[in-house]
Design a protein that fits this description.
6-stranded mixed sheet, alpha+beta, globular
């Protein structure tokens, strides 16, 4: 709510999640953001300067940028748009903010700016960790087309001293729950490092329902949980088996929570594909799971 009794609202009525401005009587004043992208976070409103700060996936679903919208001028501007994952933490009066930035293989750096977007302090940008990552745990993006022609985004981590003339086992890391995203231009290094050290390729992909791609994609599995996700996973399997450096009979799938549900679905539906499946804390009966999540 704003001092003049107007208020902002997030809605995906036009197919993407956007900001709208309303009068106190509930009448729409105007749409603040528009286009084929999602607003993914709202940091708040600087009521002194009448500026809304928000995050959006405007470039593509892999990246996030920070934007400002001047309600006095009805004009938006870019605050931070480095190629990767930009987030912000603002002070209570919006005089300062902390800019957090990372990308697929670049650990998070922290820098501080004032309201005029002038940098006032910087961090060491995780230089030591960055050097270690560049020497070892590098990931690469790739995409494939599913059976309906939509792009599925994924990353691959190849083991140390990778030789394309050799063949390697593959572990597919999956989550897949609606409104989640694990393939993003953001630094995250988890248990996949263990497989890397064992000489195993790790692949991760986002299936139908992932964040940052609009309402239709995000809600595509409503009433049919897992069915489209399994088709997307099978598309990835076909792609992996087409690669010369993959041991076609040595594919494994692992997931946690909803990913555990998908891992079990993958192991028990369709043609035999997986040598191993690991389901961590899986959802095995939707009647026994959170009713709020299940209803949505």
């Amino acid at each position: 709510f704003l001092p003049d009794n107007k208020f902002t609202l997030l809605s995906e009525r036009d197919g993407f999640r956007h900001l709208y401005l309303y009068n106190a009587n509930g009448i729409l004043n105007h749409q603040i953001t528009n286009g084929n992208f999602d607003v993914t976070d709202v940091y708040g409103v600087d009521t002194l300067r009448n500026i809304i700060y928000y995050q959006a996936a405007k470039k593509n679903c892999l990246n996030r940028e920070i934007y400002a919208y001047d309600l006095n001028k009805n004009k938006g501007t870019i605050v931070q748009e480095e190629n990767g994952w930009n987030t912000a933490v603002f002070s209570a009066d919006f005089s300062f903010y902390e800019h957090q930035y990372s990308s697929l293989n670049k650990p998070t750096s922290y820098n501080w700016f004032n309201a005029k977007n002038k940098q006032i302090r910087t961090s060491d940008e995780n230089a030591v960790l960055t050097e270690k990552i560049e020497k070892k745990y590098l990931k690469e993006f790739f995409s494939i087309k599913n059976e309906t022609g939509d792009s599925l985004f994924a990353w691959i981590m190849k083991p140390k001293n990778f030789d394309p003339n050799k063949k390697y086992p593959v572990v597919v890391k999956i989550h897949g729950a609606p409104e989640t995203q694990i393939v993003k231009n953001k630094f995250e290094l988890n248990w996949e490092a263990i497989f890397y050290d064992q000489g195993i390729i790790v692949v991760s992909l986002d299936v139908h329902g992932s964040e940052g791609r609009g309402k239709n994609w995000r809600k595509s599995e409503f009433g049919q949980l897992g069915l489209l996700g399994i088709k997307d996973i099978n598309t990835m399997v076909k792609h992996l088996k087409s690669l010369s450096f993959v041991e076609k009979n040595n594919l494994s799938i692992i997931g946690e929570n909803y990913g555990g549900f998908l891992a079990l679905m993958a192991m028990t539906t369709g043609n035999p594909t997986w040598k191993t499946g690991i389901a961590i804390a899986p959802i095995t009966d939707w009647q026994l799971y959170s009713s709020a999540y299940g209803d949505r």
